[in-house]
Amino acid sequence: MVLPRSFYERPTLQVLDDLIGKVLVHDARGRRAAGIIVEAEAYIGESDPACHAAPGPTGRNAPLYGPPGRAYVYLNYGIHHLVNAVTESEGSPAAILIRALEPVDGVDLMRRRRGSADSGDLCRGPGNLTVALGVDLRQNRRDLTSGSLRIEDHGIRPPALVYSPRIGIRVGTDKPWRCHWQGHAAVSGATSPRRGRRA
């Protein structure tokens, strides 16, 4: 089942809890690639210095202020495309960065795109997973509740979640807004012993 808009139109940290175990799908030219979300990070509002909304509305961050359930795809350091799911109500800028997936569909296609034979590394890291799924700036602002790029519920529930500070950023590192599936091999970066709900 494709997640409805109401799934995203909630406080971002609630969405973060529920997003782990959901399946990110991209159908491109009749070729399907998909993976279970095992790691993600929340970015919330203009008061969050690590959120792209921190400087206020711009042309680049406009999707963050738009309707929930849309994709916010941007080019990071001019190299990697990163994909986010926009959350909360329209006008309240927030999103969840998808950091890692467990590949489940289109693994051979992902290997060709990544030039890698190791399925465990195909979607480990936010830049790697977009290459594997064929996601780039053309998917920016796409509606995740319909169409070729979407997030589905397959009834998968992680046995336990772990929360830790966000990684790969220079500011806002005190927020424990990185959530991942405890012990999952596809999780990127270092793990944290903090379990249960985030602070």
Short description:
By secondary structure, the protein is α+β, with helices and mostly antiparallel strands. It has helices spanning 5-8, 12-19, 62-65, 107-114, 126-133, and strands spanning 23-28, 31-44, 71-76, 80-86, 94-105, 149-152, 161-164, 178-181. The chain has a single domain (5-181), classed as 3-methyladenine DNA Glycosylase, Chain A (Roll), CATH 3.10.300.10.
What does this structure look like?
The chain has 199 residues and is of the alpha+beta class. It has a single domain (5-181), classed as Roll (3-methyladenine DNA Glycosylase, Chain A), CATH 3.10.300.10. The chain has 5 helices and 8 strands, in the order ααββαβββααβββ. The chain has helices at residues 5-8, 12-19, 62-65, 107-114, 126-133; strands spanning 23-28, 31-44, 71-76, 80-86, 94-105, 149-152, 161-164, 178-181. Strands 1, 2, 3, 4, 5, 6, 7 and 8 form an 8-stranded antiparallel beta sheet that branches. Helix 4 packs across helix 5 (126-133). The chain is globular and about 40 Å long. The mean pLDDT is 93.
Report the β-strand fraction as a percent range: 25-35%
The secondary structure category is: alpha+beta
CATH class: Alpha Beta
User: What's the name of the CATH homologous superfamily?
Assistant: Methylpurine-DNA glycosylase (MPG)
Run of helices and strands: HHEEHEEEHHEEE
Q: Which fold does the CATH topology refer to?
A: 3-methyladenine DNA Glycosylase, Chain A
As residue ranges, the low-confidence spans are: none
- Tally of discrete structural domains: 1
Cα(first) to Cα(last) distance is 30 Å
Largest sheet: 8 strands, antiparallel
CATH architecture, by name, is Roll
User: Total number of helical segments?
Assistant: 5
The pLDDT mean sits at: 93
What's the Cα radius of gyration?
15 Å
Number of strands: 8
Instruction: Tell me, briefly, the overall form.
Output: globular
